[in-house]
Design goal:
- It is a single chain.
- The chain folds into two domains: 199 residues, 3-Layer(aba) Sandwich (Rossmann fold), CATH 3.40.50; 141 residues, Glycogen Phosphorylase B (Rossmann fold, 3-Layer(aba) Sandwich), CATH 3.40.50.
- The longest helix has 30 residues.
- The strands form two sheets. Strands 3-2-1-4-5-6-7 form a seven-stranded parallel beta sheet, covered by helices on one side. Strands 10-11-9-8-12-13-14 form a seven-stranded mixed beta sheet, sandwiched between helices.
- The two termini are 15 Å apart.
- It has eleven helices and 14 strands.
- It is α/β, with parallel strands linked by helices.
């Protein structure tokens, strides 16, 4: 009997987005009869363990990046840089040992830059081949992108989860002169799928991302929602908040029209988004792909000083795709009055781009 190919899938532990977009990759690998191992750490590993309880998991060393409560995110990340670099060195050493001990055939890494090898094909999934420098830090753009390109080019191939043409979701982040030597567009990838269902609520709030910003936006939105519910005479909105905490499994009802749940697996989240009128969330790229896949309207609130999210929210706003509000000036009533003036992303991924790329990868292993 022919031995099944053994492939590691490893998402970065930065919020839950990198793990969630690995779900369709793992599903396709399993369809093509690959022996999949999941590698990672923290909440992202826990999410994939819950989605694929029968798959073996390997713990990798990893740095848990925290966002500042006060001060600029860039300086905070610069101060954490030695720990981030050390973590990358440790995960590279770990993966060399794992490749040898587990007889691994290939690796698919989502934003984990240390998971490269000259022994086997290693794929890097990344939508941000061009790093957007934050306001006030434009001088960082050129050196940061040179380092980014150097690290990406250590991989066998780079997969960009977007469309190649002008009608795309990542804008300049995934379409620039900075494209790596070996690059393939695999189309937007989402663990979720569209189907018809009845409306159950007006607004779904999806929270994710590193602490303490996840908790910070939860506190702000909870206060804004309760104010809107209590002060809107004759206007009734029904809200559900998914807190994005996979370690817990509680439901809290703050009001007959406002509940919170700690976490939802893919099936429950799929139904929750489809049965909501609009989604309020961060414009993290994986979340954006989920929203687009389900053809939903959205209100985006970018993480302060997070250049990628600020760029994407402005990009979608200017293209009249999705409405956005800044965290410091959230007006929930205004947002709910205006989001319907934006079309949402209408292009449907009708080509098996991901399937074809995985078939291509398996051919490299024969």
């Amino acid at each position: 009997m022919k031995r099944k190919k053994k492939i590691i899938v490893a998402p970065l532990n930065w919020g839950l987005g990198h793990a969630s977009r690995c779900i369709p990759v793992i599903r396709e690998l399993l369809k093509q009869e690959v022996n999949v191992l999941i590698a990672g750490n923290g909440g992202s590993l826990l999410l994939l363990q819950k989605e694929f309880p029968s798959l073996r998991c390997i713990l990798l060393p990893g740095h848990t990046t925290r966002y500042p409560v006060t001060g600029h995110l860039v300086w905070n990340l610069i101060f954490q840089l030695p720990q981030i670099i050390l973590s990358g060195i440790r995960e590279h050493r770990a993966i060399k040992r794992i490749i040898r001990d587990e007889d691994i055939d290939a690796i698919i890494s989502d934003n984990r830059y240390g998971l490269y090898s000259d022994k086997i094909p290693c794929i890097l999934i990344i939508h941000q081949v061009f790093l957007m420098a934050p306001k006030g830090f434009k001088w960082l753009g050129k050196p940061a992108n040179r380092i980014n390109q150097y690290l990406i080019n250590k991989f066998y191939c780079c997969w960009i989860p977007d469309y190649e043409g002008e009608e795309n979701l990542s804008g300049d982040l995934g379409h620039s002169s900075f494209l790596p030597k070996s690059t393939n567009y695999i189309g937007p990838i989402s663990r979720l799928s569209f189907y018809q269902t009845k409306k159950k609520r007006d607004v779904l709030i999806l929270l994710s991302g590193p602490e303490p910003q996840r908790s910070f936006i939860e506190k702000i939105l909870t206060q804004k929602i309760l104010e809107l519910i209590n002060n809107s005479s004759g206007i009734t909105f029904k809200f559900l908040m998914v807190r994005g905490i996979p370690e817990r499994n509680e439901t809290i009802e703050l009001h007959p029209n406002f509940s919170k749940v700690d976490f939802m697996n893919s099936g429950l989240l799929n139904e929750a988004i489809l049965s909501s009128e609009v989604v309020i969330t961060r414009p993290g790229y994986s979340t954006v792909m989920d929203i687009a896949a389900l053809q939903k309207k959205a209100i985006f609130i970018p993480t302060p000083d997070q250049a990628e999210q600020e760029y994407l929210s402005e990009y979608y706003f200017q293209k009249k795709l999705y409405y956005s509000e800044s965290q410091s000036e959230i007006d929930l009533k205004r947002a709910l009055e205006n989001y319907n003036n934006f079309s949402g992303f209408k292009k449907v991924n009708d080509k098996p781009l991901l399937k074809n790329q995985i078939q291509w990868l398996l051919e490299q292993l024969d």
